[in-house]
């Protein structure tokens, strides 16, 4: 055989092996065991362990991949989540073999394999155990299902796993990954809309991550079944996971997002206030809403249209009875500084003569039944078909439909129902034997090969992500130099590359208000920083105080969108009278003044993956184990700490201020916090160190949201605008809060194109230093060639008896200003 033909034959066989080998008896069980047949590789090891073949490789510094197969050889590699370029060939891997163990290390993280039983233990270079297979429970397969058991140290905590609603820390709980339209969800409802099989383990301030790269229904049990171990497994597919070393939680999240990708810098308007409802119609109502914002001087950027703007709920149509001048309306709202985002569900009505259906059918772009016919499910438009989003060609077909909207000047697209939700089935989705086609390009298959067929068991969890990928890529194609804004409800690991998300159908209750923190914080830990929830709650109507508190909190959430379902009372900021309206306006205004800080923080997030909204443990790993702390307060960017009143009860509550110096965001005054040990003696068992923390008691009134500034922060603010379409008039304001590690920065660009990638941006860093007389503030030399909107800088230094301000002219060169205090 010539080499070429040999390769082709090999490829064919390997594809057969990949996708058709199944244990003969579905209930047959297999497990890992004694090690044999060790084969070193440049990046790690392959060996047999009991019934399994295992490959342990270091794919980039601090990231170890572990693959198991029961087949004779490994299937063709493939992943919807992992970006192939994330594998770094330059990692120096050392391999050592002794009589009892095998070791693989990059000099930092060490993976040790016990020869006697195949047990894998991850340690750091000084020997601290980070993650260990359980000594008594081998990795086990029953038919296609597998399960991995790990030791569960008594004080270890587990964060992440997407939009789970139990609490930030999943210890004591078990969760399932199966994207579900969970209307009516409550605390602990599981599964929810997203499947992100990644968590961060935290013990004594040391973090590691584990990502199970498997799209089948999977589950994680953190001590619910037994407090002796934690475990994870899936109902099919490859046993393929990544161990991600820290020790800092930020490092873990950075490394996880280097594997699965980061959220590209969003357009500026997406950080403005957004108003939605199910649904605004007719046209006059939409115009009225827009006018209300402008006449009442409540800043806002986006109005959203839900499903009723469509003709018979058909995507890519307009109900002309409700919206006779749709295009003109979009244009007029644009003139008022509003962008429009419209819902566009993934389903396509099955109707001859409806262009998307005819075109999609002609192009063979829809998902099929096992007998080869189109799969038809009932959704909003009635009988509908679904693009086979795991085919690049189907994504292209679907993405190109958005021309309908881009031609009208619609800014963003909202992909709902993409779990996928299908009516009339008890489990609310399509049958498991529904057939999907997957091409090499979509799943990064290596070696590449022809389109393969699989069923819904494998594709269910990833369909929503491929749906928003189609939308994102379609919008990019249509408007190559505009940052697409896409919103998704369902997600898999990696969806953060394409779309923002929200937590689905929450309720207008204090409980759901409180759950804003654990759900959104865990999304951040899971590599999903650009997220929000329905401000005011979707299901039901909030009492006035609750809506006010939620609009206050929303000002400090990554996405700030008020939304409610059909048939509920009006939920716009002005609906409960002038007193509430004034408070709400004040917080929305605060959001707009703070935009330079938010945008600067998000630009950093787009490069590092470290979320905008972050739990206490992400900034202060040692404090992660303080009772309930990760669900009660959070950091918004590096320097702001937000501690909302999350219970309706009137009792004052304690706010923990980590670090020595804190300021009240609203008054600029230093906070006098009581110092206390983070936990008492009884809780110190097994802990190396008990840190001291600041503690204050607060009892915020209706118009108060406790927000604090880290001493050492320099926060950029801008003059009030009514929409980001407006250019701020006046100076850039730098608020300087002296303290340790005093620094800050501002980043800006045109806010909507990709020109920043060519250097058309503006970045400036700041520092401050205490002097004998006061404080010296330094503005660094600017980076990038973009000219920002300001011509003056107004510096205000807090911390003295009174704040002191100075005005400086704008300059790209370094400047220093000293104030006396
Ligand atoms: O079956 O489009 O979560 O935000 O308003 C309900 C109507 C469908 C569910 C979404 C919600 C949206 C609603 N949708």
- For this structure, the CATH topology of the largest domain is TIM Barrel
Strand proportion: 25-35%
Fraction of helical residues: 10-25%
What's the CATH class label of the largest domain? Alpha Beta
> Based on CA inertia axes, which overall geometry fits?
globular
Q: What's the structural domain tally?
A: 4
Q: Based on DSSP secondary structure assignment, what is the total number of beta strands?
A: 51
The helix-and-strand class reads alpha+beta
Count up the helices.
15
CATH-level-4 superfamily name of the largest domain: Glycosidases
Distance between the termini: 85 Å
What is the radius of gyration computed over CA atoms, rounded to a whole number of angstroms?
Answer: 27 Å
**Sheet with most strands:** 9 strands, parallel
The average pLDDT value, as a whole number, equals 95
What does it look like?
The chain is α+β, with helices and mostly antiparallel strands. It folds into four domains: 26-260, Immunoglobulin-like (Sandwich); 268-345 and 393-420 and 459-608, Alpha-Beta Barrel (TIM Barrel), CATH 3.20.20; 613-706, Immunoglobulin-like (Sandwich), CATH 2.60.40; 713-820, Golgi alpha-mannosidase II (Immunoglobulin-like). The protein has 15 helices and 51 strands. It has a nine-stranded parallel β-sheet. A hairpin with a 2-residue loop joins strand 25 and strand 26. Helix 6 crosses helix 9 (456-478) and helix 11 packs parallel to helix 12. The longest helix is centred in the middle third of the chain and has 23 residues, at 456-478. It is globular. The chain starts with a helix and ends with a strand. The relative contact order is 0.09. Ligand MIG binds at residues 278, 306-307, 343, 416-417, 489, 504-505, 538, 563, 565.
């Amino acid at each position: 055989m010539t080499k070429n033909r040999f390769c082709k034959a090999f490829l064919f066989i390997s594809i057969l092996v990949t996708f058709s080998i199944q244990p003969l008896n579905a209930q047959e069980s297999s497990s890992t065991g004694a090690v044999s047949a060790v084969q070193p590789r440049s990046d790690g090891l392959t060996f047999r362990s009991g019934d399994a073949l295992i490959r342990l490789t270091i794919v980039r510094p601090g990231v170890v991949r572990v693959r198991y197969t029961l087949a004779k050889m490994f299937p063709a590699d493939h992943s919807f989540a992992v970006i192939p370029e994330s594998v770094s060939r330059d990692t120096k891997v050392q391999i050592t073999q002794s009589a009892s163990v095998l070791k693989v290390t990059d000099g930092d993280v060490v993976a040790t394999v016990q020869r006697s039983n195949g047990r894998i233990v991850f340690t750091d270079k000084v020997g601290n155990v980070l993650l260990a297979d359980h000594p008594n429970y081998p990795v086990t397969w029953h038919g296609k299902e597998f399960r991995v058991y790990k030791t569960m140290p008594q004080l270890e905590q587990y964060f992440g796993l997407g939009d789970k609603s139990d609490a930030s820390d999943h210890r004591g709980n078990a969760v399932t990954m199966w994207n579900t339209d969970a209307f009516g969800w409550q605390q602990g409802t599981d599964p929810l809309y997203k499947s992100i099989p990644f968590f961060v383990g935290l013990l004594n301030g040391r973090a590691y991550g584990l990502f199970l790269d498997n799209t089948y229904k999977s589950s994680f049990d953190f001590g619910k079944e037994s407090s002796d171990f934690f475990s994870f497994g899936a109902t099919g597919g490859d046993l393929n996971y990544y161990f991600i070393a820290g020790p800092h939680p930020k490092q873990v999240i950075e490394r996880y997002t280097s594997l699965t990708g980061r959220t590209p810098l969003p357009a500026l308007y997406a950080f403005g206030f957004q108003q939605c409802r199910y649904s605004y119609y007719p046209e006059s109502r939409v115009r009225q809403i827009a006018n209300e914002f402008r006449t009442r001087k409540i800043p806002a950027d986006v109005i959203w249209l839900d499903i009723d703007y469509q003709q018979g709920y058909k995507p890519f149509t307009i109900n002309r009875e409700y919206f006779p001048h749709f295009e003109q309306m979009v244009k007029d709202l644009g003139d008022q500084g509003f962008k429009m985002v419209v819902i566009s569900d993934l389903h396509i009505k099955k109707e001859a003569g409806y262009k998307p259906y005819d075109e999609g059918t002609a192009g063979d772009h829809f998902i099929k039944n096992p007998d080869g016919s189109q799969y038809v499910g009932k959704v909003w438009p009635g009988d509908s078909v679904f693009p086979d989003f795991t085919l690049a060609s189907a994504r292209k077909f679907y993405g190109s439909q958005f021309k309908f909207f881009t031609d009208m000047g619609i800014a963003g697209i909202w992909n709902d129902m993409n779990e996928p939700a299908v009516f009339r089935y008890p489990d609310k989705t399509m049958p498991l034997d529904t057939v999907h086609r997957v091409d090499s390009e979509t799943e990064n298959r290596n070696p590449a090969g022809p389109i393969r067929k699989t069923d819904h068991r494998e594709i269910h969890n990833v369909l929503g992500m491929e749906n928003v990928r189609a939308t994102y890529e379609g919008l990019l194609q249509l408007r190559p130099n505009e940052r697409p804004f896409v919103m998704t409800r369902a997600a898999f690991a990696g969806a953060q590359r394409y779309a923002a998300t929200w937590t689905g159908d929450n309720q207008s209750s204090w409980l759901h208000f409180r759950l804003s923190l654990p759900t959104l914080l865990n999304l951040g830990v899971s590599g999903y920083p650009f997220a929000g929830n329905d401000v005011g709650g979707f299901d039901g109507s909030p009492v006035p105080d609750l809506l006010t508190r939620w609009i206050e909190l929303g000002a400090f959430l990554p996405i700030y969108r008020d939304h409610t379902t059909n048939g509920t009372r009006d939920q716009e900021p002005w609906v409960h009278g002038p007193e509430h309206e004034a408070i709400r306006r004040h917080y929305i205004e605060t959001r707009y003044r703070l935009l330079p800080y938010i945008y600067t923080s998000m630009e950093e997030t787009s490069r590092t993956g470290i979320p905008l909204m972050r739990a206490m443990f992400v900034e202060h790993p040692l404090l992660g184990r303080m009772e309930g702390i990760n669900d009660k307060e959070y950091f918004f960017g590096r320097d702001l700490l937000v501690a909302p009143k999350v219970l309706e009860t009137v009792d004052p509550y304690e706010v923990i201020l980590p670090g020595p110096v804190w300021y009240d965001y609203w008054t600029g005054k230093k906070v006098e916090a009581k110092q206390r040990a983070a936990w008492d003696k009884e809780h110190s068992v097994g802990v190396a160190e008990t840190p001291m923390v600041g503690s204050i008691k607060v009892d915020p009134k209706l118009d108060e949201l406790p927000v604090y500034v880290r001493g050492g922060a320099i926060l950029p603010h801008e003059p009030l605008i009514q929409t980001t379409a407006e250019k701020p008039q006046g100076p850039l304001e730098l608020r300087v809060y002296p303290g340790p590690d005093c620094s800050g920065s501002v980043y800006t660009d045109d806010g909507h194109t990709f020109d920043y990638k060519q250097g058309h941006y503006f970045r400036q860093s700041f520092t401050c230093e205490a002097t004998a007389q006061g404080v010296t503030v330094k503005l660094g030399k600017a980076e990038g060639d973009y000219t920002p909107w300001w011509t003056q800088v107004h510096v205000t230094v807090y911390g003295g008896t009174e704040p002191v301000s100075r005005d400086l002219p704008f300059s790209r060169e370094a400047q220093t200003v000293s104030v006396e205090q």
